[in-house]
Amino acid sequence: MASIELTAIEIAVHEQSGTAMLLEARDLVSSNRVSVVRRDDDPTTVLGTVHTDQGEFTAWVRLSPERPGNPDVRQCSCGKRKYCVHVAALVLSTEARTRPKLPTAPEPSLWEAALTQVLKPATKASEVSPAPQNAQIALQFELRADAEPAAIDVRLVIPGTNGGWVRSTASWTWLNYTDHHLRRVPREHVRLLKEFAGLATGYAPHINDRHFTLTSITSSRIWPVLQEMKASGLPLVMSGRTAMPVRVLAEPLTPRIALRRSSAGIHMEAVLAGDGTDVEAPFLPIADPAHGVAWHPDHSSDQLSLAALAVTPPEVFRRLAHNGFPVIPAAGEERFLTEFFPRLAEQIEVVSPDGSVETPQPLPPVIEFTITVIGEHRVRLESSWIYRLGKASRREPVRLPYGKTPAKRNVAGESAVLEQLRPILGEVPGLLEPTTRGLAPVPSCTVEGMGTAHLLSQVVPALRDRDDVLITLVTGESELPEYHESHDAPVFSFAPSKADGGDSQDWFDLAVTITVDGRKIPFQELFLALAQGEMHLLLEDGLWFSLDRDEFHRLAALIAESREIMDAPEGSVRIGRFHSGIWSEIDDLGEIKGRAAGWRKSVQTLSQLADLPEHKLPAGVEASLRSYQEDGFRWLATLLQHRLGGVLADDMGLGKTLQTLTLLQHAQERKISHLPFLVVAPTSVIGNWAHEAQQFTPDLRVAVLDATSSRRGYELSETIEQVDVVVTSYTLFRLEFADYRKFEWAGLILDEAQTVKNHQSAGYRCARDLSAEFKLAVTGTPIENNLMELWALFSITAPGLFPRAERFTDYYRKPIEREQNPERLAQLRRRIGPLMLRRNKEQVASDLPERREQVIELDLAPKQRTIYQKYLQRERQRVLGLLGDLTRNRFEIFRSLTLLRQASLDVSLIDPVHANVPSTKLDALLEHLAEIAAQGHRVLVFSQFTRFLTRAAQRLDEAGLEYCYLDGKTRKRAEVISRFREGDAPVFLISLKAGGTGLTLTEADYVFLLDPWWNPAVEAQAVDRAHRIGQTRNVMVYRLVAKDTIEAKVMALKARKSALTNSVLEGDEIGSAALTADDIRGLLD
Predict the structure, then answer these.
(1) CATH 3.40.50.10810 occupies which residues in the chain?
(2) Choices 3.10.170.10, 3.40.50.1100, 3.40.50.300, 1.20.1250.20: CATH for 851-1084
(3) For residue 363, what is the enclosing H or E element?
(4) Is the pTM of this model over 0.85?
(5) In CA terms, which of 111, 263, 380, 765 is 20 to 30 Å from 828?
(6) DSSP run (H or E) holding 49
(7) What SUPFAM superfamilies does the database record attribute to this sequence (predicted)?
(8) Over the stretch 918-937, which tens digit does the pLDDT of each residue have?
(9) What are 828-844's pLDDT values in tens digits?
C-alpha cells in the first residue's frame, strides 16, 4: 500500500493515540475546528477549544520539549482518561503545518504503525459484540459526557434480531410484571435485577423508571450485586454499536496522590490504586460522596470499567482529580515537602510510584498521656497518639475507628508500642480496655485512690524514659503528695475501750490500735478498706501499704464475726466470755491490755485438753474412770470454774453420764454452789440416771421427779432444798416450767440434748430461759439434720457465741450446707472447738469389742411386691406434684414416704385387708432370731413403727420365743429394762423413739434394725445401746432392707446425709443432712 507522510509531531501523537485517533485529530485540525490560546507567560501551556459534532470540549496541555506529542500534563472536559482526540487535536494544532514533510520511508509508516497497534494485546473487539447465546436480557451502561455533571445511565436491553442488544420496549418497569416480561430470564438474573433496582429506587413498591442513573445510586451495596451479575452470566455491556462488555473490578481501589519528578519539577496527580491496577484521572465518581468510580481504559470510549472505592476520597483528592495541579518547581520543592506535604499526607496517602520523589518518612507513632491532678488522690488521665511528619504533627484517637482501619494510621507501629506498654499500664486497673487488637489504653478515665498512687509512683517513672511515650503532667493549684509504699509489719494492740465501763463480766469492748511505719492508722478507713476487699490502704500524706497480709485478713474476719454476734462501738471488737476461740486469735494478732488480759489467760486453757488445769477426781466417785473420761471431767470442771457452758458430744457408749456425775460430785465436794443442779433427760433415761448416780456417786443427794406435782403429791419447793441434783423428764420440765423458773440453779444438765434441737419448740425455750449459772448439753448427736440444731444447743449453753438465728443462717448455715464453703466450716469448728468435747470410740476406746455390720437384702414375696408397686405408682405421682412447694407440703410428702416404708415392711400396716399377705421381713427376722436364740445370744430389735413391733411380737408368741417390749406407751419402763438386763429373755423389741437413746443394754450382742431411715444418727444411737463401755463380746448388727423398694434408696441417701455431721464434728468433707426435693425425687425413681 502507499505510504502516508507524517510530520515528527504526528509520529509522536500516533505513538500515544493510535491510527484512528490520529486521523480523526488531523481532520479536526484541517477543518479549523480547533481554537488555540497560548499563555504568554508560559509558552509551554496551551489552552484550546475543540468543536466536534458531539459538542464543544475544552482541553489544556503542558508541552515538553523532550517529548513532542506527549504533554507532561493534559486535561480535557470530555472526562476521558489519558490521551483523547481533543488533546491530540490541540497538540497537532500547536505545530506549524508548513514544516517540511519528512521523507517517505518504510518507518514510521502508517501500516507499520497500524500493525504495531494490531500486535498489541487486544483490549476491545472491533466488531459488534453479539449477545451471549441464550441470554435473554442484559444491563446496558451509557456514558453521558455532555451532562452536567457527567452521568452513566443503566438500562435493560434485550437481544436484537440481527445480533447485539437493543432497547426496544425493555424497561425497568418489567420487574413489576416478571411473569409476563421476564418469564424466560433465569430466576437468579431476575433476583439480581430486582436487588439492583431496589438499591436504585430505595426499594420503592412500584418501579416507574425506564433507566437508572448509576452515578446517583448512593448505596455501596451495588458493588457486590454487580459482581454477582458478572459471576451469574448476566451480561453487562456498553451502549453503542460495539456493545463492549463492561468490566467490574473484583477488588476496590484506594485513592492516592502520586508524585513524579521531571525537569520542570514535581508533578502531582490523583490516582486510584488497586491490586496491579493504577487508574489515573480523568474518572467519573459514582455518587456523592463517591463509593466507586467509572473510567475508559486506555482512553477508549468503546470500553468502560467500574470499581468500588476502598474509602471515600477526601476533598483534596476530588479537587486534584477534577482540576489538575501546576508543577511544583525546584525552587518550591523544599517548602512543599516540609510544610505542605505533611498536611497533604494527613488527609490521603501520598506516594511516588517511580521513586523519583523522595518524600518525608513519618516517624514512629508516640503515645501521649496527659495527667491532670484533681485532688484527694484523684487524677484525670487522657491518652492519644501523636504522628510526626516533617515539622508537622497530628493527633489521632487512641481507639481505632470501627470497621476498616484508616490508611493514615500506622497500626503495626501502634501495636508494637502497645505490646511494650501493656505490662506497665496493667498495674493500674482501668487504664486498659479490650479492643480488636488486644488490650489498649482507654481514651480517658479518672483514676483515684490506690490507682493514683500506683500510677504516679510506679507507672509514670517506668514510662518517662521511653522514646515512644510522652508524659504531660498538669497540676494546676493542686499539690501532689509524695507517694511511697511501706513494707513494715503492722503492730496491733487491744485494750478495753472507753465505751466499756467494766461492769459486765460477760462482754468486753476492745479498742483496736494499729500502727504502720510509726503512723497510727485511722481504724475506720482501715476497716472500710478491709470490708470492701481493698488490697491496699492509702493515707492522706501519700503513704500506702498492702492489706494482703494474714494479720489484716484475720482482723477483718474477727471484726466481721464479732459484729455478726453483737453490734460494737466503732473502732472496737466486742467479744464475750464464751468466745475462747476469738480470744486466742486476738492474742495471736497483738497485745491484749487491761482487765481483758486476765480473762484471756483464764479461757485460753480450754484450747487443748493437755493444757487444762489439774482438777483432782472427787473422792466420792466410786468408779475407775478411763483416761479419756478423766480428761472429760477436767474439761467440764474448767467450764464450770469459769461459768462457761458447753456441749459434751462424745460418741454413744463412751460414758458421758459417768463424766457428768463426776462433775456433779466435784461441785458438791468443792461446795462450788449452794444451789442444786437440774438434770433433764428423756423419760426412758430417768431411771438410768438414778441407777448410775446410786452406783457411782452414792453421796450425791438425787431426787427423781417422774410425775407431775399433783400425781407425786408434793411440790418442787419441798424437794429442792434437800438435794444436790434434781432429775426430771423433758415433758415434765416443759409442763411445770413455771415452777422450775422460780428457782436459781447451780447448773442445768440436758441429757440427750438433741431433744431440744428445734429452736422453735417449747422445750427449747424452757431450757434457754431457765436461770442457771452453768448449762451443759450432753449428746452423742449434736447434729442430726442441719446446723440450726447445733445453733440451738449453743444458744442454750453459750448464749452469745453465735449471732441470732437469721444471721447464723446467712453467715454459717448457707455457706456450709449449700455452698460447701470449707473456710466457713473451718471457722465454725474453731468457734465451737473450745466449748464442745467430742471423742469417738476409735480414738479413745480401742479395747471395745469389735462391731460388725451387715446389710441383709430381701426380695419381697410376689404378692407383697405387687401391692407395693401399686402404692408406689400412686404415691409417686402424688409426691412429684407436691415438690414445687416442699415447705408447705412437707407433711403430705412425708406421709406418702412413710406409707411406702410401711409397705416395704408389711402391707397390712397400710390396710388391714392385707392381713393375710405374708411379710417377707418378719419371715426373715423370725428365722434369724430362732437361730441366734438357740446359740445363747441376746438380741435388740429396733423399728420406728410400733405396729410393726406388735406384729413381730405376735410372731414371737406363735414361735414360743420369750421377749421384752418397750415403746412410748410402756408404763414402768425401768422395770421392763431391768427385766431384760437381769432376766433370760433372748429378744428385746424396742421402738427407736422410746429406747434408741440413753439406755445401756450391753447384755445383748446382736442388733436388728428392721426399717432403715435417712438419719444415720438415730440408727447409730440404737446400735450403741449394745456396743458401749461394759460390752465384752463382739456386737453383730443386721440391717434388713427390702430390695428394689424405697428402703434401698434410703440406704444410699443415708450415706450422703452423714457427711454434714462428720464434717462439723470430725473434720471430714462437707455434706448436707437436710432432705431436699431432689433427694425425695431420688427416693421415688
Answers:
(1) 616-844
(2) 3.40.50.300
(3) none
(4) no
(5) 765
(6) strand 45-52
(7) P-loop containing nucleoside triphosphate hydrolases
(8) 999 999 999 999 989 988 99
(9) 888 888 889 998 877 77
